[in-house]
Specification:
Blueprint lengths: L9 E7 L7 H12 L3 E7 L5 H10 L4 E4 L13 E2 L1 H6 L4 E5 L2 E5 L2 H10 L8 E5 L3 H12 L4 E6 L2 H15 L3 E5 L12 E4 L25 E4 L8 H8 L3 E3 L1 H17 L5 H12 L2
Parallel strand pairs: 1-2, 1-3, 4-6, 7-8, 7-10, 8-9, 10-11, 11-12
Antiparallel strand pairs: 3-5, 5-6
Helix pairs in contact: 1-8, 1-9, 4-5, 4-8, 8-9
The chain binds NADPH dihydro-nicotinamide-adenine-dinucleotide phosphate.
Length: about 280
């Protein structure tokens, strides 16, 4: 007997504002095509005043979930039915998943980073230098801490923000941590195993921006990771490669969180190479 045709796609999305320059859609749809799934990932500009209605709309239309980006990562929480552990610790949600009819907030920013990191080296027992104390640093600090890092040196310009994050990582994740105020060129301690740029320094269009680092303190024994997806080859990435470090670029983190989102929504494992290629095609245009 002929199969009944199915013209109904499954829907996921990203809600943000501004959102037009967000490259997640081509990456996710490349992954769906690779899996043979007739899914759509929509890039939706949602004003803060419309967030509650947007979430209601996603429920009504049976979305499998959605990503949240600036400015909705914290504001979305009251409209959800529950939070996963990382999202609860971070107080921020970037991925909502429909489970048994309920919308559950997860945070895949740090998990995406960890997925990329663990493909090279485990953070367990390692000393980590974390540059920055914003949302990305918080997500990475929590996941690296939960994964068993021995110590984090947190470096940030704004002291209040830095100390707040250091306090959270110490009290909620039980990390051994010290905070360094970033008011001069920072020298990476020799015993460091992993250095992470979690600041926005290097992000398009400010391509000349440089981290206030003593780049000679980068050693081949260190793994250097950057969160900046655009451009992927930041000054930090290039400098670390020149010093012989193993390097993870910001696309790997983006792909890592996309893989986790797809697994949450579809239960399937997507192909990271297809996803990275979709991003490289965009950034090399
Ligand atoms: P936030 O605005 O929350 O934090 C920005 C951080 O960068 C702060 O710690 C800030 O320091 C620091 N910073 C900014 N300018 C400088 C400077 N000139 N020198 C030193 N530090 C500086 O941003 P997010 O944490 O949300 O995002 C940070 C970056 O991470 C963005 O570029 C974003 O694109 C990227 N990102 C990448 C992801 C990926 O998947 N690849 C996922 C999520 C984010 P201070 O507190 O002193 O102002």
């Amino acid at each position: 007997m002929a199969q009944t045709p199915n013209f109904k796609q499954e829907l996921v999305a990203v809600f943000g504002k501004p959102v037009a320059e967000n490259p997640t859609q081509p990456m996710m749809e490349a992954a769906f095509r690779g899996l043979g799934l007739d899914w759509r990932y929509l890039t939706m500009e949602v004003d803060p005043a419309g967030l509650a209605d947007a979430v209601r709309g996603a429920r009504a239309m049976g979305f499998a979930g959605f990503n949240c980006t600036i400015p909705h990562k914290v504001a979305v929480i009251p409209y959800l039915d529950g939070l996963g552990k990382s999202a609860e610790l971070m107080g921020a949600v970037n991925c909502v998943v429909r489970r048994d009819g309920k919308l559950i907030g997860e945070n895949t920013d740090g998990k995406g980073f960890l997925k990329a990191l663990e493909a090279r080296v485990s953070p367990k027992g390692k000393r980590v230098v974390l540059l920055g104390a914003g949302g990305a640093a918080r997500a990475i600090g929590v996941e690296v801490g939960l994964a068993g890092a021995a110590h984090i040196t947190l470096v940030n310009r704004d002291e209040k923000r830095g100390r707040e994050l250091a306090g959270l990582l110490s009290s909620r994740v039980g990390l051994s941590i010290d905070f360094v105020r970033w008011d001069r060129v920072f020298r990476i301690p020799e015993e460091t195993g992993i250095v992470v740029n979690a600041t926005s320094v290097g992000l398009f269009p400010d391509l000349q921006a440089r981290l206030e680092l003593d780049f000679d303190s980068l050693l081949p024994s260190m793994l250097a990771a950057d969160v900046i997806p655009n451009p992927p080859r930041t000054h930090f990435v290039r400098s670390a490669e020149e010093k012989g470090c193993e390097v993870i670029d910001g696309l790997e983190m983006l792909v890592g969180q996309g893989l986790i989102g797809i697994k949450y929504w579809t239960g399937r494992d997507a192909d990271p190479a297809l996803m990275r290629k979709a991003l490289l095609d965009i950034f090399s245009r």
